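Researcher: I've been going back and forth with a colleague about how Putative epoxide hydrolase might be arranged in three dimensions. Neither of us has a model we trust, so I'd like an independent prediction. The organism is Gordonia effusa NBRC 100432, in case that matters for your notes. Sequence below.
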Amino acid sequence: MSIEQRTVQVGDFTFEVRIGTPDDAPKPKGKKKVYLPTVLLLHGFPHNRDCFNDVVPKLLDAGLRTVVFNQRGYSAGARPKGVENYLIEHLVSDVIGVLDALDLPHVLLVGHDWGGLVAWHVAAKYPQRLTGLVAVSTGHPSAITDALKSGEDQRNKSSYIPMFIAEGSEEKLLARDAVLLRRTVPADAIAPLQEPGALTAALNWYRANFTGDIGAKLACGPIEVPTTMIWSDGDEALGRAQAEMSGRYVYSDFRFCELTGVDHWVPEKAPAAVASEVSLRSSPF
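Model: Here is an independent structure prediction for Putative epoxide hydrolase. You can compare it with whatever you and your colleague have in mind.
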């Protein structure tokens, strides 16, 4: 397998992209392009593209090309100031911009955590660009809204959000060598967030989309591409209801996969399971 590090320009922003190609990938002949099934993986908070480091080799072994990139705020060249720059619509446009820049007409889209929210919106707005969707942990935005309204479980699991959107939360989270962050997130996610402006940019995803009329901001249409929902029963942030109810909003084949004994950090803790479900969803049979 080969891994290529690239930067991709989308408008005023430069994104850090990593492309993986399996060893047995067919070679183009002359100017004729060769189609290679491609998976685009979107990370969430607070991790960058490295959260898929153990998933990617398994997908490459399965004959799939992989694309991972540090999203807005996580790529140093795509870290605008201003909360309004992190509205979900901009995050979706970034994904399409990266696909266009890489000349990828369609991909199988995978998203974890915030990457999952972005992926649902991409699937709703640009179904023609996807062969399928695999959402990890994060259910359809409307299902999340339903779960918040219908029971205390999701409200309790989401109780951390006010701290994230509060003014000055960066200083609190990074104080004493980021002790508060280290209690809840993977250790290797800490260093990138200590870069100038990085944590503010990451928290701005919450500030832009989880204040005011949240339902309107996150409103997402139905999904008309084949979809897999992966949810783990040890998830501290996202409950069963929002995952299971996601099927209501998928007007295509829907598969619900529950992982037992796994916490929220599914790509890091269960990479083989994620790769297996992605490979299944990539198969036309």
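Researcher: What would you highlight for our discussion?
Model: I'd start with this: The chain has a mean pLDDT of 94. After that, consider the following. Residues 2-282 form a domain with the Rossmann fold fold (CATH 3.40.50.1820).
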